[in-house]
Design brief:
The protein has 165 residues and is mostly helical. It is built from six helices and four strands; from the N terminus they run αβαβαααβαβ. The protein has a domain at 1-66. Strands 1-2 form a two-stranded parallel sheet. A two-stranded parallel sheet has the order 3-4. β1, α2 (50-59) and β2 form a beta-alpha-beta unit.
């Protein structure tokens, strides 16, 4: 029943967040509540305007973004989009013991470790190509980043230049 052209949200919306500034305030409130001892991570949906949203999240103090779908695929998920029903036939996103028994924990753990290690290796390779040797030195550093297939307003929000220029 979602009209064509509108984003679908699979979780309940947060009615107290209407802007990146609202999200920034929430991130810093969480940081203060945890005495700055816990990382703040967010899960976002890959909607059409995700680039400025993620840039805002990173500028508003989040330590990480959530990688849910990629993890599900690594664990063997067929992306049947029935997570909310707790009837995952792969045994991954279910609370039903009979279905959960289908998941081979050792194999799933190995697959997840391989995914994260591969991403780590790829990030290190990309960073090396940019002359950067630590993740922390990338925070706030947009000098070497270029945008591809982004609008001028998205490039401005991200603080990067168009690739090829």
């Amino acid at each position: 029943m979602i009209p064509e052209g509108f984003d679908a949200l699979s979780t309940a919306p947060h009615h107290d967040i209407y802007s990146i500034e609202d999200l920034r305030q929430l991130i810093y409130a969480i940081r203060e509540t945890t005495l700055y001892e816990k990382p703040v991570c967010l899960k976002v949906y890959a909607v059409h305007n995700i680039a400025p949203i993620v840039a805002g999240i990173a500028r508003l103090g989040a330590d990480a973004v959530y990688i849910g779908t990629a993890v599900l695929v690594a664990l063997g998920c067929g992306l049947c989009q029935r997570y909310y029903a707790s009837k995952c036939s792969y045994g991954i996103t279910t609370n039903c013991p009979d279905l959960a028994e289908r998941l081979d924990i050792d194999l799933a753990t190995e697959a997840l470790v391989n995914l994260i290690q591969s991403w780590s290796d790829e990030i290190k390779e990309l960073m090396g190509g940019m002359g950067i040797n630590t993740i922390s030195s990338m925070v706030g550093n947009r000098e070497r980043l270029k945008g591809i297939h982004l609008t001028s307003s998205e490039l401005e929000a991200l603080g990067v230049r168009q690739a090829g220029l």
